[in-house]
Design goal:
The complex is a heterodimer of chains A (226) and B (621). Chain A has one domain: 2-Layer Sandwich (Nucleotidyltransferase, domain 5). Chain A contains 9 helices and 5 strands; from the N terminus they run ααβββαααβαβααα. Chain A is globular. Chain B folds into 3 domains: 122 residues, Jelly Rolls; 116 residues, Roll (CBS-domain), CATH 3.10.580.10; 346 residues, no CATH class. In chain B, strands 1-8-3-6 form a 4-stranded antiparallel beta sheet. Chain B has a 4-stranded antiparallel beta sheet with strand order 2-7-4-5. In chain B, a hairpin with a 5-residue loop joins strand 4 and strand 5. The longest helix of chain B is centred in the middle third of the chain and has 27 residues. Classes of the chains: A alpha/beta (226), B alpha+beta (621). Chains A and B meet through strand 3 and helix 9 of A and helix 1, strand 1 and strand 8 of B. Strand 3 of chain A pairs antiparallel with strand 1 of chain B.
Chain lengths: 226, 621
């Protein structure tokens, strides 16, 4: 029996213009009862000029596919996006993308056209995923007139938050940052701060969080979804 | 091409064997990897893998155990687990488990095969056994001398260049002397068919014939030296030099298998400039003043730095320095006797510890004792007390500091007749109390430096007879030796020294060399082996079958590798005008050296385990 989610996907599909967005919606979304070890994921991170998805712009995109419990580095991808305004200094300090580098980057439409087929059918993994969801969605709306429908998302920050609450561990906001969580799980610390290394760090964090939850009795994708 | 897996590339680039790959291959390599994560306590390698992989530890630690549950290997950050990619079927009996939360990069064995096929230097790493890797590391270390040729690298083969001059032992002394004159040689080898029966030198003609009025018509057999120390064609020039220095002779017969290949003289050796050890010894023999001895011994430090720079291994340096200490000791004894007159009864001057093992580094402590003939009278002790004081003070003035444990001949306790020494050892062996164990590294490594009447031989025979037959003693010694374990996990910073002057270092002598020295001593004592030098002990132990050939060769490589690292560390400090110590920082080592050092530590650990089991050391731990 088709699920409510699948009905909604097909509704979006009918309204999507032909092109990347429509192709993306052709793929069914993952089922929450799937064994998480047999699911594929796309860990993704964006660097942006700010935090407001309506006013700020995507500067770069990094992503890598996670197949079950293994990150496939051959799929690692990093793209810088050309933007039509100068990069605010405040954000340049963080992501270190300069105007010159941005000028060498690809057009947003090309970057998203490349990304969407990779995301299709996979579960998105991101740390503080609302940023990625918001920016991608808004970009799609500007490019193709429709928002991006991303109902299957694992937010590693939300998972960490749940863990702290469940175990009644006192924590500060800074404890929920990607790198602080990484060191809790003995993950490598990547010096460079770019979209791909953060996407990779989020993917590794997900593997660690999954390993800590997995007691060998089997876990379902639904146990991780937002 | 993306820049971003650069951090993974850099991680690999700094580790052997990936450091052997060209830049462009390294840049592509991360794209062939996958990443996996295992909680602490997970079975390793994972049972759910879809194919065979090479595992590269990025974070965490893995312990591998044999079927008995003994730790055989511990993998840490940067280490590889390649058992699934071996040519031989993998040994499924080893069980691994992650000892920490662990993140690994995995490379399919098929990809590894391609890399191995395309990059020979990279492939080499996987083809060598642990012991081969260690041996090679040592070769690399000693084969890069600053001074191209020298006694460290030249072999006796290259210095023996003419057919040996020989005669039979039945030749008359006159005829022998004529042969020597005709060929302008100062020594003659005497052959019985293919067998080397003896040798005479100019000195023998003078001392044993002319001076005593022996008829020159007598056969030369009557004045020849029969017990000959020989070297073979592959002996390093340096080792020949050490042998001559030790024996105080100037000629050594050279054998090729059992056949005589020629003769090598000290003149042949001194043509090579790094022969300054023998110059130092020659100077010592000639001098009559303590001031000169002090000046000469001040050069020992310089000699150590020079020898290491010219590619000598730790054992060669130890041999050279110990030979010099012996010579200084002997000279001091001669000076004391010249001053005090002849000894009232025979005695032997014994050296203990590193001097006895011929493993000294510049200016070790002095450990020595006096063995006096049993018929000595109580009043004779005044003579020996004075002699001991003279020699101990002389050694101290030469920079061999007084032994902190007071193990010196000037201490009445260690200046005793043979029967008391017998009693001491009987006691130590029957009741190996902590005190005895503390002294064991001094007194169970014992050698006579000056012993004209061969008193020491009897003592040594009795010690070895007792130690060989007393299993409880051996078990005690073993338990004690196992208390010093190599710092297996030092890459993980858990056993580095924290705080103080030696922050973030480890003691390479105490944690690396002493365990091997202790092992070799136990093999020697349990099998009645008289050798004192650690490498010789290990060699003889293998010949007698108390230690496997493989185990012996590996331990010898390990002590040479660790010892040479230590000597280099000290040479570096001495060159910088600092005092030499044993505190090495892992950061002073290349990743490759760190890797080899860890393998050496693992090897020591394995050998300790097996010795512990054999001698049931657990009963006394």
């Amino acid at each position: 029996m088709p699920s409510l989610l699948d009905w909604r996907r097909r509704w979006h599909l009918r309204h999507a213009p032909p092109g990347p967005l429509r192709d993306y919606l052709e793929q069914p979304f993952a089922h929450p009862r799937t064994d998480y070890r047999h699911q594929e994921y796309l860990a993704i991170d964006l660097e942006t000029t700010g935090l407001d998805s309506r006013r700020d712009l995507i500067l770069s995109v990094g992503y890598v596919i996670v197949r079950g419990i293994s990150i496939d580095l051959s799929t690692a991808c990093h793209r810088v996006v050309r933007i039509d305004r100068s990069i605010p200094e405040a954000s340049a300090v963080i992501h270190q993308i300069t105007d010159d580098q941005s000028a060498q980057g690809g057009e947003l439409i090309d970057v998203l056209t490349e990304l969407l087929p990779v995301l299709a059918g996979r579960v998105m993994i991101a740390h503080h995923a609302s940023i990625e969801q918001g920016f991608l969605s808004h970009a799609c709306k500007r490019l193709w007139g429709r928002e991006l429908f991303t109902p299957r998302v694992i937010d590693t920050q939300v998972l960490a938050h749940r863990t702290f609450e469940r175990r009644q561990i006192p924590f500060k906001a800074s404890d929920l940052r990607l790198h602080s969580l990484g060191s809790r799980y003995n993950l490598p610390r990547y010096g460079a701060h770019n979209a791909l290394s953060d996407a990779l760090a989020a993917a590794e964090l997900f593997l660690a969080q999954a390993a800590y939850r997995d007691n060998g009795k089997g876990l379902r994708l639904g146990d991780f979804l937002c | 091409m993306d820049i971003e897996l650069i951090e993974i590339q850099e991680f690999l680039a700094s580790r052997p064997p990936f450091d052997q790959l060209p830049e462009e291959t390294l840049a592509r390599l991360p794209k062939h990897l996958s990443v996996r994560y295992f909680r602490r306590g997970t079975v390793f390698p994972p049972e759910d893998a879809d194919q065979s992989y090479l595992y590269i530890l990025r974070r965490g630690a893995v312990e591998l155990r044999d079927p008995q549950g003994e730790l055989v290997s511990k993998l840490a950050e940067g280490d590889l687990y390649d058992m699934q990619c071996g040519d031989a079927p993998q040994d499924a009996s080893y069980r691994g488990m992650t000892a920490e939360d662990t993140l690994v990069y995995i490379l399919p064995c098929a990809d590894l095969s391609i890399l191995r096929a395309e990059h020979a230097a990279f492939a080499e790493h996987f083809e060598q056994s642990v012991s081969n890797r260690l041996r090679k590391a040592l070769d690399v270390m000693v084969d890069t001398p600053n001074a191209g040729t020298g006694l460290m690298t030249v072999r006796v083969r290259d210095m023996v260049n003419r057919a040996p001059i020989t005669a039979t032992p039945e030749t008359s002394i006159r005829e022998a002397a004529k042969i020597m004159s005709a060929h302008h040689v100062s020594s003659l080898m005497l052959m019985e068919g293919e067998h080397l029966a003896g040798m005479i030198t100019d000195r023998d003609l003078r001392n044993r014939c002319v001076a005593v009025g022996l008829s020159i018509e007598r056969p030369v057999r009557e004045i020849m030296t029969e017990k000959l120390v020989t070297v073979d064609l592959e002996t390093l020039g340096f080792q020949a030099l050490i042998a001559m220095t030790r024996l105080n002779v100037h000629h050594l017969p050279v054998l090729d298998g059992k056949r005589v290949a020629g003769l090598i003289s000290s003149t042949d050796l001194t043509r090579y400039q790094s022969a300054n050890a023998i110059y130092l010894v020659g100077d010592i023999h000639r001098t009559n003043s303590i001031e000169t001895l002090i000046q000469i011994s001040a050069k020992i430090t310089e000699l150590q730095v020079h020898l290491i720079a010219s590619g000598a291994t730790a054992n060669s340096v130890g041999q050279a320095i110990s030979a010099i200490t012996d010579a200084i000791t002997l000279r001091l004894i001669e000076m004391a006797e010249a001053d005090l007159g002849s000894p009232p009864v025979p005695y032997a001057w014994m050296a203990g510890g590193s001097q006895a093992r011929r493993e000294q580094s510049s200016h070790s402590d002095q450990d020595n004792a006096l063995l006096i003939a049993d018929h000595a009278q109580p009043e004779d002790d005044a003579y020996f007390a004075a002699l001991a004081k003279f020699v101990n003070d002389g050694l101290a003035a030469c920079g061999f500091i007084y032994c902190p444990g007071e193990v010196m001949a000037s201490n009445p306790k260690w200046r005793q007749p043979l029967r008391i020494w017998h009693k001491y050892f009987a006691n130590w062996i029957v009741k190996p109390e902590p005190m005895a164990l503390m002294l064991s590294s001094v007194f169970f490594d014992l050698r006579a430096v000056h012993d004209p009447e061969n008193l020491f031989e009897e003592l040594q025979e009795r010690i070895l007879e007792r130690s060989r037959t007393n299993r409880i003693f051996i078990a005690y010694m073993t338990a004690n030796a196992l208390k010093t374990r190599p710092p297996l996990g030092f890459f993980r910073n858990i056993v580095l020294i924290h705080g103080g002057d030696h922050d973030q270092t480890f003691d390479i002598k105490h944690r690396g060399l002493v365990p091997i020295i202790d092992l070799a001593r136990i093999y020697a004592l349990s099998a009645g082996i008289p050798e004192t030098n650690t490498i010789e002990r290990l060699q003889v132990a293998a010949e007698r079958g108390v230690l496997s050939r493989e185990g012996s060769a590996n331990l010898i490589d390990a002590i040479e590798f660790i010892g040479t690292l230590r000597m280099r560390h000290q040479a570096r400090q001495l060159r910088n005008g600092r005092g030499a110590d044993n505190f090495l920082s892992p950061e002073d080592l290349s990743p490759l050296e760190r890797g080899h050092l860890k393998e050496a530590f693992l090897l020591i650990n394995t050998m300790q385990e097996s010795l512990g089991q054999r001698h049931q050391a657990g009963r006394f731990a």
